[in-house]
């Protein structure tokens, strides 16, 4: 995966899970779980499962299905273990080189993970390889900064703070909203039919302080700031102030938008 942008280690999983999860991930985890369930799969593989927020959504909507969850970061999976039934197979794995036999699963799911793959095509080919014929690959990506203003605000602040070398993290998760590119990649990898849904949502924010903390400490941008001798605490306060100025006092909601793909194996 994309080296620095994919390193969710140390204290990052805790902030990702507790401060970003309720705002950005839980609603879409439910959407993902419902989409996977619509094909009634018996065997499900989740790649880039993170701290298991999306895994919990899959479990809730697919009772009785066999689920295997994977991620490149062991620290993320340690938190995921508490969100899935005892006995669920949990394994460190790279989505670009999956350690599973051909046609092992009826569904492959990935929430907000493919953007971190250096070789997205390899991720598509591996998903197709481990799917049985007729299986479905359900994956989601964030739409652009224009449709997710909160992320654009953070990226702009990082550029202002480090004009000569801005931390690049916030250009990665929001940099793969080109629907036609993803359609072509899926089709070139052997997927025959695609359904694409654009999903706006009003995400609940209980506290700007907590959300700002998560936006900086809950992903590798915190390490990118420290490597530039930046002040993480000061940056968090600046993010909090900018979000409050943009959206008003919390609790409130912010508009976010994602794109959900369902790609069926031929």
Please state the overall shape, judged from the principal axes of the Cα atoms.
globular
By CATH, the superfamily comes out as Vaccinia Virus protein VP39
| Share in β-strands | 15-25%
- The top-level CATH class is Alpha Beta
User: Helical residue percent?
Assistant: 40-55%
Radius of gyration: 18 Å
CATH architecture: 3-Layer(aba) Sandwich
Mean pLDDT figure: 96
Order of helix and strand elements from N to C terminus: HEHEHEEHEHHEHHHE
Q: Which structural class do the helices and strands define?
A: alpha/beta
Total number of domains: 1
Would you give the CATH topology?
A: Rossmann fold
Q: Pick out the low-confidence regions.
A: none
**Gap between N and C termini:** 27 Å
How many alpha or pi helices? 9
Largest sheet: 7 strands, mixed
How many strands in all? 7
Strand order of the largest sheet: 3-2-1-4-5-7-6
For this entry, what is the oligomeric state of its chains? single chain
């Amino acid at each position: 995966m994309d080296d620095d942008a994919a390193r969710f280690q140390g204290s990052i999983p805790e902030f990702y899970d507790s401060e970003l999860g309720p705002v950005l991930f839980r609603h879409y985890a439910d959407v993902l779980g419902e989409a996977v369930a619509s094909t009634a799969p018996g065997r499900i593989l989740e790649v880039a499962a993170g701290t298991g927020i999306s895994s919990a959504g899959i479990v809730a909507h697919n009772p009785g299905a066999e689920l295997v969850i994977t991620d490149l970061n062991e620290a993320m999976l340690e938190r995921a273990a508490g969100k899935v039934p005892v006995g669920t197979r949990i394994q460190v794995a790279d989505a670009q080189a999956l350690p599973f036999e051909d046609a092992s699963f009826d569904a492959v799911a990935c929430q907000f993970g493919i953007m971190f793959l250096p070789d997205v095509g390899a991720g598509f080919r591996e998903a197709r390889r481990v799917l049985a014929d007729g299986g479905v690959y359900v994956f989601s990506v964030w739409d652009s900064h224009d449709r997710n203003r909160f992320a654009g605000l953070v990226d702009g602040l990082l550029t202002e703070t480090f004009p000569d070398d801005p931390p690049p993290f916030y250009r990665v998760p929001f940099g793969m909203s080109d629907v036609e590119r993803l359609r072509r990649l899926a089709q070139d990898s052997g997927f025959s039919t695609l359904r694409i849904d654009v999903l706006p949502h009003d995400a609940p924010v209980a506290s700007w302080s907590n959300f700002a903390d998560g936006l900086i400490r809950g992903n590798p941008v915190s390490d990118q700031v420290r490597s530039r001798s930046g002040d993480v605490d000061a940056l968090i306060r600046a993010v909090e102030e900018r979000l409050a100025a943009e959206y008003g006092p919390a609790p409130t909601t912010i508009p976010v938008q994602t794109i959900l793909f369902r790609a069926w194996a031929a």
